[in-house]
Amino acid sequence: MFHKTIVRLTAFYLAIIMAISIFFSLNLYTISSGEIRRGVTRQTQIVETGSPNPLFDTVSDHLQAQREAIIDEANNQLIFRLALTNIIILIGGGILSYALARRTLRPIQEAHETQSRFVADASHELRTPISAMKIETEVALADPKLTASKAKKQLASNIEELDKLSTLTDGLLRLARLDNQNYNLEQVDVRDLAQASIDKVLPMAEAKKVLINPALGDNLSTYGDMQLLTEMLVTILDNAIKYSPVKSEVNLKTFSDKQHTIIEVTDHGAGIIDTDIPHIFDRFYRADNSRTDSGANGYGLGLAIAKDIVHLHNGHITVKSDYGKGSTFTVYLPLYNQV
Ligand code: ADP
Fold it and tell me: Confidence class of residue 1 from pLDDT cuts 50, 70 and 90?
């Protein structure tokens, strides 16, 4: 599909280049051939006026014929050179147009590939719980000795799968809407942001007896959407708790450098293997530790959404991890007075 578009765009660029080249060549030909005629005529006139002689008429006819021959030859030379130049421009322009068309379409091609991969991954994730539900329900229906309690168990299992599906579709919708939603941009106090996020994950932390240690710097603010930024920080804190052992600590620190408000979340949990680190912000990526950890279920969309939110705020996010010892996620947001 993209090859055809590249060829079409190449033809379009080349048509423009050739139209310009032919236009200039025609103009050059018209002007130059006029100049040649004028120049040659002037020369022969000098010869003519300088020879008042009885033989003049014969000489004049001869000169006239020679003049036309010179003009014809000069014009032919001009046409040959202009045609050669246009052929060179056609070949060079073709190569250049093709390179330019490829370059123009590359970002669109990449976005298209990402989108296709995303749709394929989403379909795959959606299919798994749907298939599980279908098979289990079919088996239950085919069972002639299906009791009320067995049927209830089946329905409960279906609800579990439906909950997973709803988490997944919420995540997908979140990603799709991030680019198009309206933002409520304002000065955001980072202390308020940290506190609001802690409040949201506190029940989960308490249930796991994980202690959240805040160390919040004073007078730090950024410019953004409080709700979105809270969603981002909640995701990071939620992961920190989710991948931490029972009765451990999670540190939340906020400070600044010359250009950024910095939010740092450190846990003492499972950590992330080096080879997983470059991928954990990718959509649907789940490291092996999360698959084997029975308490940690998810679809690998949380950090992708968090990263998109940080990027929307012109910030960036990094992670450092010591496998088996813990991880530190660091979010850099622009300082309010530098936005
Ligand atoms: P999930 O829903 O699987 O948690 P995320 O996008 O939030 O999806 O995280 C992607 C993966 O990154 C997780 O599956 C997990 O393997 C890894 N991860 C994220 N945060 C942590 C953390 N604090 N400690 C260890 N691994 C983490």
Answer: confident
Q: Report CA(122)–ligand 1 centroid distance (Å).
A: 18
State residue 183 phi and psi, 5-degree precision: -105, 145
Phi, psi of 133 (to 5 degrees): -65, -45
**Strand (E) or helix (H) holding 214:** strand 211-216
Q: What is the per-residue pLDDT across 125-145, written as a single tens digit (0 to 9) for each?
A: 899 889 989 999 999 999 998
CB of 258 within 8 A of CB of 224?
no
Ligand 1 contact via 286 beta carbon (within 6 Å): yes
Please give the distance, rounded to the nearest whole angstrom, from the Cα atom of residue 290 to the centre of ligand 1. Answer: 7
**Between β-strands 249-256 and 211-216, what pairing exists: parallel, antiparallel or unpaired?**
parallel
CA-angle at 38, arms to 35 and 41, nearest 5°: 145
Beta partners for residue 317, in sequence order? 331
Q: What angle do CA 80, 85, 88 make, to 5 degrees?
A: 125
Pocket test for ligand 1, best of 118, 249, 280 (most atoms within 8 A of CB): 280
Q: Which two tokens stand for residue 180?
A: 């198009």
pLDDT tens digits, one per residue of 64-74? 888 889 999 99
Give, using CA atoms, the residue closest to atom 3 of ligand 1.
Answer: 300
Ligand 1 centre and the CA of 253: distance in Å?
A: 20
The pLDDT-based confidence of 63 (bands split at 50, 70, 90) is confident
pLDDT band at 40 (very low <50, low <70, confident <90, very high): confident
Structure tokens of 224?
């953004």
pTM over 0.85: no
